[in-house]
Structures are given as C-alpha cells and as structure tokens.
Amino acid sequence: MNQTRMFLLFAWIAVATLLYMEWTKEHAPSVVPTTTTASAATAAPAIPVAPSASTALSSATPTAPGAVTTATPSAAPIVTVNTDLLRLTLDGGSVHTAQLLRYPTEAKAGSESVQLLDARPENFFEAQSGWVATGNSPAPSHVDGFVPAEAARSYTMQPGANTLSVPFTWTGANGVTIRRTYTFTRGNYAIQVRDDVTNNGSAPWQGYVYRQLERNPPPQKSGYTNPEALAFHGAAWYSPTDKYEKRKYDKFVDDGTLDKKVTGGWIALLQHYFFTAWIPGDKDEATFSLSTRQVPGATNYLVRALGPGVNVAPGAHAETTARLWVGPKLVEGIEAQHVPGLTRAVDFSSFSFMATLAGWLFAIITMIHGVLGNWGWSIIGLVVLIRLAMYPIAAKQFQSMAKMRKLAPRMQQLKERYGDDRQKLQMATMELYKKEKVNPAGGCLPMLIQMPIFLALYWMLSESVELRHAPWIGWITNLSARDPYFILPILNMLIMYTTQRLTPMQGMDPTQQKMMQFMPLVIGVTMVFFPAGLVLYWVTNGALGLLQQWFMLRRYGDKPELAKA
C-alpha cells in the first residue's frame, strides 16, 4: 500500500509537471528573435576589437560575441594524437574529431568507440580557438593560420610517459608569433591549451583569444523510459556571480541573446553521459555568448568565450592558458580539475535542490561501490541504507495507520450520527483524533520524504556514466539498458501484488480496491522498458518495503494474512 501510494503520488506530480510545461509554452510571451548581426553591434562597444579585425581573420572569427560569419575550410595539415584515453585529429585551431577509447558505443566486444567530436557535416561537433586583433593587425583564426611546429603528423603517448605535447605556430607579417601547445596528461580528459605570444615587431600588438564549441546536434530521441531523451542537450555555462546556467538548442534564439562578462567560469555543450567544455583561467576575463550559424541543410549552434586580451609591446611576451575537457561526465575526474561549478555539468536535475540531493546520493553509492566493486550491488546497498535511515519515520507511519484502522468503526458511527451535517462531523472527527492522539496526516509524511529521494535517485541513475554498460549478475550485463528477459519487471509485479494482498483494505471503497488490484500490472508494464538499474532499485525498495510491512503488521496487531481479492 505504501509503495503503491508513493507511485501514485509520483505519477500525479509527473502529470502536473507536464501540464504546466505545456501551459507555459502556450502562454509564454513571444520573443522577437535577434539576428546575430544586431547582437554583435550591440555588444561591440563593450569589446575593444576593431571591426576590421574580421577581415584579417579571413572572415572566420567574429569581432564581438554573437557575430558569426562564414568560415573558410581549413587547409592546415591535420595531426593525429593517440593517448591512453583519446584519439583525436586537430590542426592547431580546431579539434576536429575525438574518440573516447574506453567507451564503446555498445556493450559488446568489438564495438566502436564513442566519437564525441566529429567533422562530418551531419554530426558536426568541434572545439575551436583563435585570435582577433585590434586595428589592421593580423591574427590566426581557428580555420586558418596555425601550422604544425614539428615535422611529425602523428603523436602517440608512449608507455611510461605521463604527458604528451603537440605544438603549433603562427607567424604574422608584423613579426608577432603565437606558439600554441596542446598538452595531454595520462588518465586525464582535460587538455591544456597554452598560447605564447611573442612580439618581434616594431609596434605594439593587442589581441583577444576566443574559444568556442560548435555543433550540429543530432535529432533528440523520445520516450519517457529512455534516459537519453530525459537528459539535457544544449549549452551550459558557469560564472561566479550567476553560477550554473544552461539553454537547450531550440531555445538559443527564443530566449534572447547572451552577452555575459565573466571572470573565470566555463562554457560547455552537454549531452547524455558526455560533454565538451572550455575552461579559461580562473582570473581570465571573457565574454560568454551564444549564437547560431546556418550551413547547407542544417543549423550549427555555438557557445563562445571571447577573451582574455593581451597587449604585447615590441620585444615583449604574453601567454594565456585554458583547458579543454573532451570526455565523459566522470564525477571523480571532473572534481580533480578543481574548477568551481564544473560538477554541475553532470546535470542530474534542473532544480538546484534535486541536483544537490542526487549529488549526495551519488557520493554515497560511490563509497559503497568502493567496497563492493559492483554497481548493481551498490544500488541494492544504497536502498538498504535509505530504508534503514527512514525506518523511524516509517514506524510512525504504520503506527498512525494502525490507529486509524482501529478508529474506523467509530468513524462510521459518527457518519451515521451526523449524516449530512459536515461541520458537526468534522468537529466530532477532530475531537476523536485529539482524544485518541491520532495524526491523520502521519501516514503522508514518509511518502513526501521518499518522493524527492526517488526522483533524485531516478535522475542520478539515469545520468551517471559510471553505470553505463555496467554489469550486475547473470543476465544483467548492462544496467543502463532494459532487462533482456524482463525478469526484474516481473519480479517487481509479484512484489507489488504480494504487498497489496498483505495490506488491510477494511473500509476502502470497492472501486478503489479494484483499482489497486490492477496497479501492480499497470506499474509492472510501465517499467518493462526502464533501464535495469532503475528497476533493480525499485525491486529492492519494494522487497524491503514488503518485509517492513509484514514486520509492522505483526508488531502493531494486524494479522499478516492475505487480504481477500
């Protein structure tokens, strides 16, 4: 009964949320889309970059946030890099492709690695970086300028080596040179990108580095049982003042332009399980912006950080460094970067409280996994700990329910005595509750507490890349996919049916009793296509709830006999 009520409450909240979302779509005030040209004009005064800079960049880079022009395909030599985690191709200005060697696309032998960055137009996703300069000074863009500093076109991290450096250079006609070095570290998905600017000319040179992510996002999958469909897909950014913010691809224009001055922070494009992010220095000043770019047959979406700027006198030197994360949403690896707010890229929930709660639950399940070494058993261990922590509240709930059942005959007498006089019936009822020290709302508190925990667990288990393709036992070889033989969903139906039969239904409306009889079947069918990890959580929770209910019924005087159908 407790489990059934909790699911009904969850279903009601889900339906209410969907209705509210649809209502806001229909009643939201219309926003006039702002063109990228207008956005650039508005932001230009705040960015000390001359309009002529775009000419020097071969029309490849905007002179202000939000301005996007057509880029010329790069003719620079392509360099291949192989590390213990990644296989990439880059040309100095752009990282064109990136394969995650430890993450196969499917949970079977011989499956290809996940390709996060992709140069193909239909799956276009690149990490790009270049420079803009003031006046008529030249500067390298992400599509033209940088060339390999060495003869090698292929680099491989050797066994025993902890780092691998891949250098590129650009030399301008004015004597300014920029040496860009990509440094890869063993066991780390964060790539250090360092630009060293040297002015060998006779005039000062002022330039601004830009770093951006550009993508043609794939079509969104649908289905409430598909975790990928429920995951956030779009741009995210973080600033010390406004903290974590995000925007879906279909809201890039409708929700207005972005022109945010930030010191530190980061920008990213998120998807289910994986993400790419530019992380400037914590003291670097930049302007974050969003924009779109029309390409043949598609729309590319960009999130950009313009800045910091450098002013290099003749004979002087300046440098700027950023990190480029290309990899999975591994909490441990992200925390190792020591970047404020970067763990929010593991987007457990749009609600800050729920995201925090999910983060706590993930920390607990990670500690359990450190002991048990298996994510399936860790899920079971987490449910056991939650049940133990909530046992005092559950005991209060069953005490309240037992008292209410004992008062049922007297409640019926009050109804017969006062008939249709609702006011007197209510007063008499409250007097009875007060006399018998019964709290009619006592049975609701555990459900209200369990609901956010269930939702946080649902989002946490759905979003955690650590559980992706993780096996449990026997036939469950992938906790992120559905049970191939539907054993867990069937077991869940049996547990719910037994729990229902064990629940006293005296005084319950006959119509409600019939509805409860069909509830195990309805919920069981609903969970057939859920990921096995989520169903395992629900089965464990239901089994412990059944055991707890049996114990409570014996303790508080109700005979644990199966109720008549």
From TrEMBL:
Transmembrane segments: 6-23, 375-395, 440-460, 472-497, 518-539
Pfam families assigned: 60KD_IMP, YidC_periplas
Ranges where the Membrane insertase YidC N-terminal domain occurs: 79-356
InterPro entries according to UniProt: Membr_insert_YidC (IPR019998), Membr_insert_YidC_N (IPR028053), YidC/ALB3/OXA1/COX18 (IPR001708), YidC/Oxa/ALB_C (IPR028055), YidC_ALB_C (IPR047196), YidC_periplasmic_sf (IPR038221)
Compartments reported by the entry: Cell inner membrane; Cell membrane
Alphabetical keyword list: Cell membrane, Chaperone, Membrane, Protein transport, Transmembrane, Transmembrane helix, Transport
Entry's family note: Belongs to the OXA1/ALB3/YidC family. Type 1 subfamily.
PANTHER family: CYTOCHROME C OXIDASE ASSEMBLY PROTEIN COX18, MITOCHONDRIAL, OXA1
Function: Required for the insertion and/or proper folding and/or complex formation of integral membrane proteins into the membrane. Involved in integration of membrane proteins that insert both dependently and independently of the Sec translocase complex, as well as at least some lipoproteins. Aids folding of multispanning membrane proteins.
Protein name: Membrane protein insertase YidC
Gene, per the UniProt record: yidC
